[in-house]
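Fold it.
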Amino acid sequence: MNTIIQNSLANSHTYVEYRAIISALLKEGKSTGNEPSDDLTNYSQLNQTRMNRLEKTIEITPEVTNKLQKLTKDYLWLVIAEGWCGDAAQLVPIFHKMADVSPKVEMKIVLRDENDALMNLFLTNGSKSVPKLIIIDKSTNEVVGDFGPRPIGAKQLILDYKAQHGIVDETAKIELQKWYLHDKGISTQNEIMDILGV
């Protein structure tokens, strides 16, 4: 696993670089990913707007800020994402703001379709769902845990909707966006702190 992670890190980006890659592709009418389509480009455009908004509105809670600033170990947060992914648009800005709060956390982002070996280590029920946040202890290079592709409440919303309707359609996606809006990133922050054990 360590070799795969190291290989992925050689191909990783900072949050600012990740945003710039998405923006540059959108100017060419493209999206990230190995199978570009008009739909994915449209989702990327929507997600660009979403991330711009979240960067301005999402706040890390005082409790989580306090815990992050008191971390005693150094961590690498390796995020697998894609620009077209709605969940990534909701969550990656939160990861970024959390990492920004602590000098003990360094965050890097890799694109899913360019890092197949890494993605295959962190499947969700056999699927390549993103985003995935992989938390690595820098002193040991051990994976402490991973988070994603959604916080528990959002996962449950989609599971319940699928059980009732048999599919995840546009209505489900709208309900999911409402859930994220209402939650304000708090579930994500708390679940990540639980993984860190603080």
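The chain is about 55% helix and 15% strand.
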